[in-house]
UniProtKB/TrEMBL annotation:
GO terms for biological process: copper ion homeostasis. Its EC number is 7.2.2.8. Keywords: ATP-binding, Copper, Copper transport, Ion transport, Membrane, Metal-binding, Nucleotide-binding, Translocase, Transmembrane, Transmembrane helix, Transport. Its main location: membrane. This is P-type Cu(+) transporter. The lineage of its organism: unclassified sequences, metagenomes, ecological metagenomes.
Length: 236
């Protein structure tokens, strides 16, 4: 942020902003790094070219974040943090919750490009976000997951909207998706197997039409029953 007030120039931002305006930050580097290793975002306040203060802020880590990351790893999901914070701060937070990979210093408009780059590596990417600037990345991702407490734009863009602000629901959504795909494959297998075996027999006249109709109904019933067992699936 750069503003003018009563003939004074006030800057509030990161090292890049200070460097762009010719302000040397070397004398406060030790303090900055100490704050950043604690997981805080340190911003520099400068007035008329002189550093006046360091403002440190920190996001509260969501409840169950570490547990959710652990569960995602258990089911073979690689996790990454995509953030506008500097790398030191981002790595400190990632270490607390067990995230594998950190992509830091990402501007809001660059998030979608990062997702696209990950996809170009052959990865299927799911993006979890709640802010307005997350919307393009949610749209670019193969699966966009928006938190229920997030912005309206994020919720409209996400393919999945979690009702609660609980990251464990991300794990449950993925598990439910995997179970659903498994049921679809099972049902296709049994339906295809039944038709492959029964249709030639019926065509050759070896199967009574009434029995064939009953068998077809039984096949449909078995498919529906198999799908209905998802209701009793244990996702936790």
């Amino acid at each position: 942020i750069k503003v003018g007030f009563e003939d004074r120039t006030i800057l509030l931002g990161n090292r890049r902003l200070m460097k762009k305006n010719g302000i040397d930050t070397q004398r406060i580097e030790n303090t900055m790094k100490k704050l950043e290793t604690e997981g805080k975002t340190a911003m520099i306040l400068a007035v008329d070219g002189d550093i006046s203060a360091i403002v440190a802020v920190a996001d509260t880590i969501k409840e169950n974040s570490a547990e959710a990351i652990s569960k995602l790893k258990e089911i073979g999901i690689e996790t990454a943090m995509l953030t506008g914070d500097n790398e030191i701060t981002a790595k400190a937070v990632a270490k607390k919750v067990g995230i594998d990979r950190v992509i830091a210093n990402v501007l809001p408009g660059e998030k979608a490009k990062v997702i696209k780059d990950l996809q170009s590596e052959g990865k299927v990417v799911a993006m979890v976000g709640d802010g307005i600037n997350d919307a393009p990345a949610l749209a670019q991702a193969d699966i966009g997951i928006a938190l229920g407490s997030g912005s309206d734009v994020a919720k409209e863009t996400g393919g999945i909207v979690l009702i609660k602000d609980d990251l464990m629901d991300v794990v449950q959504a993925i598990k439910l998706s995997k179970l659903t795909m498994r049921k679809i494959k099972q049902n296709l297998f049994w339906a295809l197997g039944y038709n492959t075996g029964a249709i030639p027999i019926a065509a050759l006249g070896f199967l009574n039409p009434i029995i064939a109709a009953a068998a077809m109904s039984a096949s449909s019933l078995s498919v529906v029953t198999n799908a209905a067992t998802l209701k009793f699936a244990k996702l936790k």
